[in-house]
UniProtKB/TrEMBL annotation, chains A, B:
<feature type="binding site">
    <location>
        <position position="391"/>
    </location>
    <ligand>
        <name>substrate</name>
    </ligand>
</feature>
<dbReference type="InterPro" id="IPR002813">
    <property type="entry name" value="Arg_biosynth_ArgJ"/>
</dbReference>
<keyword id="KW-0511">Multifunctional enzyme</keyword>
<keyword id="KW-0028">Amino-acid biosynthesis</keyword>
<dbReference type="GO" id="GO:0004042">
    <property type="term" value="F:L-glutamate N-acetyltransferase activity"/>
</dbReference>
<dbReference type="InterPro" id="IPR042195">
    <property type="entry name" value="ArgJ_beta_C"/>
</dbReference>
<comment type="function">
    <text>Catalyzes two activities which are involved in the cyclic version of arginine biosynthesis: the synthesis of N-acetylglutamate from glutamate and acetyl-CoA as the acetyl donor, and of ornithine by transacetylation between N(2)-acetylornithine and glutamate.</text>
</comment>
<protein>
    <recommendedName>
        <fullName>Arginine biosynthesis bifunctional protein ArgJ</fullName>
        <ecNumber>2.3.1.35</ecNumber>
        <ecNumber>2.3.1.1</ecNumber>
    </recommendedName>
</protein>
<feature type="binding site">
    <location>
        <position position="176"/>
    </location>
    <ligand>
        <name>substrate</name>
    </ligand>
</feature>
<dbReference type="GO" id="GO:0005737">
    <property type="term" value="C:cytoplasm"/>
</dbReference>
<keyword id="KW-0068">Autocatalytic cleavage</keyword>
<feature type="site" description="Involved in the stabilization of negative charge on the oxyanion by the formation of the oxyanion hole">
    <location>
        <position position="114"/>
    </location>
</feature>
<feature type="binding site">
    <location>
        <position position="386"/>
    </location>
    <ligand>
        <name>substrate</name>
    </ligand>
</feature>
<comment type="similarity">
    <text>Belongs to the ArgJ family.</text>
</comment>
<comment type="pathway">
    <text>Amino-acid biosynthesis; L-arginine biosynthesis; L-ornithine and N-acetyl-L-glutamate from L-glutamate and N(2)-acetyl-L-ornithine (cyclic): step 1/1.</text>
</comment>
<feature type="site" description="Cleavage; by autolysis">
    <location>
        <begin position="186"/>
        <end position="187"/>
    </location>
</feature>
<feature type="binding site">
    <location>
        <position position="267"/>
    </location>
    <ligand>
        <name>substrate</name>
    </ligand>
</feature>
Length: 391, 391
């Protein structure tokens, strides 16, 4: 059972804090520290595929080549992206500061940032914030929520989830943003923790598979940001070994719940849309077709209008890099078979899109591949949030 | 010099008409006929790359394998897409009707449709409209404008252009829509005519090259519709041979002017955005990078806000399938060098985006490839038009 009142400190062996370091001009919390007290320090990370990578992404990719982490420091209020060599030095200095205060090596410290691209961070505030955060480190619901809160930007709520296995080990985590590419301040950051005992080789492959089937299936406005990062930290403090399949299921469940919270909190959203494609030649082609619908602005404005305009869906699927015969295309919207064999079937008025949830089911009849993408509508609120955002 | 008061009947040998056939419920003009009286009947077509192709696209692709056309019939008020075998029979019947009345073969008649996807056309109205249009066929400014007007859907104005070469031959044409993928009713249709004497082999390659560098470089909301069609008809009635290069230049100039009119008329647009990428490894990679910016909703909402948010531009380029080193990325917005070597340079306040036109120049410093894409902003008007569209 997922518990949304707990997060990164639900597993044993972790302490966390979230403080107001003065990075954000408005004085809200903006620096989070998560510490893994072990005994294990196994860790893995999945990073943005964007060719423009923020300094903290370049740093964290580098330190994670060891497969170990003792701490993660995250800041909101600035992405530290497109900041050149000086920005990378800022990230390095932040990791060194955390290492000094905790008595570990900088190579054990990952760094994540989120906020406006192209601006240097106020390093005095960041470094003083680390001192403050170390003093606040704790366990329990309060520390966990503080950690999840200090990373948010335009999010309206902090997002946490935890799950305890019957064998006595726990997976917890937080996330901020609204998808692998969110609107507005854009970045998706997530830290997942566990006290299970897990083979080191399992950690990386478990995280990669979980991210692929959860975070990478939420597509609010295409692409990935300069800072997107998901980290998995293993303390092993429960002293209980988790089987690889149980472990994968738990990590995936926590990630999936965080993704549902990200989708719900995307800016200006009025509809939660699930696009499932069946009958593609491969699963990858099914995902590509579902993504084509999820990224199509004509479909997204129709979803906003609650208009079951399946012609736009057919057009979007036709633009996907997915092979199919248009004369076999089936489209079902909220249970109404609006298109069968590439032509009109049930009248579109039979599809009721007045509620919050829209389910689009597409069958290409070209194979066995299945894939799902979660997305949102394109609303006035979306335009408002993303154009009102002051530079 | 481009003349926007003339169109498909500017070249000799062409007659045209546009009539209200009763296909649109509101009684506005909805059927256009263009007839090539020769002596040549050479023709070429470029069609949507969407896998879901409307019946008229399938028909016109088929008849154009001969490289000849004597007439084109176009209707607004219905796309005849996703209408199955019955819809294809409707297209065939329309071509047969035109052929009967004109005393030619159905194989000499192309058909284009635009409007809502998934609905059959009211064939009584279409067939009666053909009789009406044949009676109205004429030359001169009035006939040309009527032909350009009866194809429009959500366009606010008819779009024509003509150009006469010093040697005495002319290229003319009309277009409707707002790009190779337009918002709302989506389809882009264009008919280009010429009275030049042109080698048959030149016709097809000239049209393809012209479309690639004009219509295919306007990207309002990604993808291509089920019905997009550009046709080039050659009468040879001027009796003057056009050199291949002069002919290509004239066809491209007419297409480029029509594209500028399409961009200006895209729904809800407040900004005309030109994205030019230089220094890519190849021209194709430059176009791909420019297209990534043009399709990015975060960039498009920032354009709407007049916000020179170059971080979003950097992020969009980083998501393109284009190789570059982020530490060499230069971005210039309306002349202001906001990003140099991947980091902030001129302050963003130096870029004035208060006017209608926005020029984004990106240099990747990875080669010699150059490419440009025209696009628009993502405005409240866009959401309004595309969600208010009643199904």
């Amino acid at each position: 059972m997922i518990d949304r009142d707990q997060g990164v400190t639900a597993p044993q062996g972790f302490r966390a804090a979230g403080v107001a370091a003065g990075i954000k001009p408005n004085g809200k919390p903006d620096l989070t520290l998560v510490v893994n007290d072990g005994p294990s320090a196994a860790a893995a990370g999945v990073f943005t595929r964007n060719q423009v990578k923020a300094a903290p992404v370049l740093w964290s990719q580098q330190v994670l080549t060891t497969g170990s982490l003792r701490a993660v420091v995250l800041n909101s209020g600035g992405a530290n992206a497109c900041t050149g060599p000086a920005g990378f030095q800022d990230t390095h200095a932040t990791a060194e500061k955390v290492a000094d205060v905790l008595g570990i090596g900088a190579i054990d410290v990952a760094v994540c940032s989120t906020g406006l691209i192209g601006e240097r961070l106020p390093m005095n505030a960041v470094l003083a914030g680390v001192d403050l955060a170390v003093k606040e480190l704790g366990r329990g619901a309060e520390a966990s929520l503080a950690a999840a809160t200090a990373v948010i930007t335009t999010d309206t709520v902090a997002k946490q989830a935890a799950l305890t296995h019957a064998d006595g080990w726990t997976v917890g985590g937080f996330a901020k943003g609204a998808g692998m590419c969110a609107p507005n301040m854009a970045t998706m950051l997530s830290v997942i923790t566990t006290d299970a005992v897990v083979a080191r080789s399992t950690v990386d492959e478990t995280l990669r598979a979980a991210v692929e089937s959860t975070f990478n299936r939420l597509d609010v406005d295409g692409g990935t940001s300069t800072n997107d990062t998901v980290l998995l930290l293993v303390s092993g403090a429960a002293g209980v070994e988790a089987g690889p399949e149980d472990f994968a299921a738990a990590v995936t469940a926590v990630c999936a719940d965080l993704v549902a919270q990200l989708q719900a909190d995307a800016e200006g959203v009025t509809k939660h849309v699930t696009v499932t494609v069946r009958g593609a030649a491969t699963a990858a082609e099914a995902v590509a077709a579902a993504r084509a619908v999820a990224q199509d602005n004509l479909c997204k404005t129709a979803f906003f209008a609650g208009d079951p305009n399946w012609g736009r869906i057919a057009m979007a699927v036709g633009n996907a890099p997915t092979e199919f015969d248009q004369h076999k295309l089936d489209i079902t919207v909220n249970g109404a078979a609006v298109c069968r064999a590439g032509a009109r079937a049930a009248h579109r008025s039979e599809a009721d899109l007045s509620g919050r949830d829209i389910l689009v089911e597409i069958d290409l009849h070209a194979g066995e591949g299945v894939g799902t993408i979660l997305t949102t509508d394109l609303s006035h609120g979306y335009v408002e949030e993303n154009s009102a955002y002051s530079s």
